[in-house]
What we know:
This protein is mainly beta and 83 residues long. 12% of the residues lie in helices and 35% in strands. It has one helix spanning 31-40; strands spanning 44-51, 54-61, 64-70, 77-82. Strands 1-2-3-4 form a four-stranded antiparallel beta sheet, covered by helices on one side.
Amino acid sequence: MRKFLIAPAMVVALPAFAAEVTQDAQLGTTMDEVKASLVEMGYEVRKVKMEDGEIEAYAVMGDKLSEVFVDPATGQVTKIVAK
Length: 83
């Protein structure tokens, strides 16, 4: 009788889709919500902080670093600075 060895398949977790954040995006009203929204969009979030009354997130997609500014009252992106 022959025995077969079945190796478990390697599964890599990837976001369901990758999308660029735009100025009309709603990302959330807390730092955790903003981070989760950006990660769901396919970004690697390096840092999130409150500065000058806005949530500021440093996010990377591919070789592009972006600073994303979000109004914590509305959750809407107010500015995006590509670096």
